Amino acid sequence: MRIILARHGETDYNKNKLVQGHTDIPLNKEGIRQGIAAGKKIEGYDIDIAYSSVLDRAYDTARYMLDNSNSEDNKKLSVIKDKRLIEKSYGEYEGVSFAEYGAGLKAGETRGMELDTDAADRVEAFFKEKYEEHPDKTMLAVCHGGLIRSFLTQKGIKDVGRGVIVNTSVSVLDYDGEKFELIEFNK
Questions:
Q1: In principle, which of 49, 95, 146, 157 could form an S-S bond with 88, CB 3.0–4.6 Å?
Q2: Distance CA 115, CA 105 (A)
Q3: 6-44 confidence digits (pLDDT tens)
Q4: If pLDDT is split at 50, 70 and 90, which confidence band does 83 have?
Q5: What is the pLDDT of residue 164?
Q6: Where are the domains of the chain?
């Protein structure tokens, strides 16, 4: 199975450097523009099925990407929301500045955050289930930066560290039901 893993477009929380997590913040004008432009990133792929997080910023980005990819087949695809693709929960950090979040982590304060390992495990379970349903298909999955970083790092696919997963960036993976192979990262 080929997985096209994309991050949602920009929101005002991204712009203002605030932690989002499960807070459902919509795309801003720049995020809409990014989603439309990101359609070009998937033009070379015959996408069979599309999924997104249950949060509107991810769903809307998926829709913009499909509708602007110059593929009539992509435009006809439905985007299926799945709660396993939701961003990591940042607990009490949601809505605070990146600076406060960073200082809290340095002090060892998790404040109810979801563990990276737990987030990565739920994404892996999602892909394993979808592989069993669609082993030879190409999937678009639009979700969130923290979740993508946790998944790639915790599953040993790529050590992203604290690096930024860029808004509307695309990472491409092949998955055989057992292991993931990273083809492209953060493009």
A1: 146
A2: 12
A3: 999 999 999 999 999 999 999 999 999 999 999 999 998
A4: very high
A5: 86
A6: 2-184
Q: Is 83 marked as binding a ligand?
A: no
Q: Which residues are catalytic?
A: 8, 87
Q: What is the 3-state secondary structure (H, E, C) of the chain?
A: CEEEEEECCCEHHHHCCECCCCCCCCECHHHHHHHHHHHHHHCCCCCCEEEECCCHHHHHHHHHHHHCCCCHHHHHCCEEECHHHCCCCCHHHCCCEHHHHHHHHHCCCCCCCCCHHHHHHHHHHHHHHHHHHCCCCEEEEEECHHHHHHHHHHCCCCCCCCCCCCCCCEEEEEECCCCEEEEECCC
Q: From residue 37, give the alpha-carbon distance in Å to each of 20, 34, 117, 151, 167.
A: 23, 5, 32, 25, 11
Query: Is 51 part of any known ligand binding site?
Result: no
- Asked whether the whole model's pTM tops 0.85, one would answer yes
101 is in an annotated binding site: no
Annotated ligand binding at 149? The verdict is no
Phi, psi of 47 (to 5 degrees): -80, 130
Strand partners, 11: 27
Does residue 144 have a known ligand-binding role?
no
